Structures are given as C-alpha cells and as structure tokens.
Amino acid sequence: MQRFTISLDDELADEFERYMHRAGYANRSEAIRDMLYIRLGQQREQADHQGDCMAVLSYVYDHHARDLTERLARLQHARHQLTISTTHVHVDPLQCLETVLLRGPAGEVRALANAIMAERGVHHGQLNVVMGQDAQGHSHEASHGGSHGHAYDHPHEHSHDHSR
What we know:
Arc Repressor Mutant, Alpha-Beta Plaits, five-stranded mixed beta sheet, 5 helices, DNA binding, metal-binding, Ni_resp_reg_NikR
C-alpha cells in the first residue's frame, strides 16, 4: 500500500469533511479511495468501449405511451445477453420505474441504455457504470467491510414488483 500527502485549501477541506461524515466514511483514506475508483472508472469507460462493465440503468416511463412497453421489451430482448435482471415498479397510475442490471462490453451497455432512454415516453433515465476490475468489486476497510465482488456467472432474472 502506498501513502501520499495532499494539500487542500481550507474551504475544500471543510467541504470534504462534511461530505465524508454525511456519506458515513470512517476515514479520509476510504472516502478518497472511493472517489478515485469512481473517477478512474469513468475514465476507463470513456477510453475502453470494449472493456467489461456492470451497470445499473434506471428510468421512469409513461406506460400509456403508445407501444412503449413493447418497444422497451424489444430493445432489451435484442441485447438479452447484456441483461442480468430487470425490476419493474408501478409508481403511480401513469408511470412505471424500471431498473435494469447490465453486464458486458461498456460500449454495448451504453448503446443499449442510450437507446432505451431515447425512447419517446421515457423520462429521468440514468446509467451508472462500473468498469473492469471494479465491476468485480473492491474491498473497503472499516465500516463498509468485506468484498462486494462475485466471480460466478449470474442467471437472467426478471422480477416484477406489483406491490404498488
């Protein structure tokens, strides 16, 4: 493990301390490590479109929009090898929320997510991507504890929560 020292102006240091405590980090090293993982992962995604990633795509859509449910299903089925799981929730009488867990080459994952978010009737779409080694998880010390990685293949699961 390497150690290094950084200098921050007082205002930035105070803001970082507040962030660290709000987010529940036990120490500065842990918070900075996570920030680096996020930023470096974003850089790898931009540079390496063929690199493996895992991603979460969340979006809200108007389920009364003409043929939207069928169009969304066609998009996902056309790239079924990227989909790990889909969760569907009825938000209110007009809107549904879907969260899709994806895994595969970053460029393909992003292309699928962009196609879904571009569909007429889809709102509030957001994609969160974890690249390469980070897609297999990384370990934290202290309060976050343990490794979050999985080395096994995941089956396709489609669960629908109709509790609302």
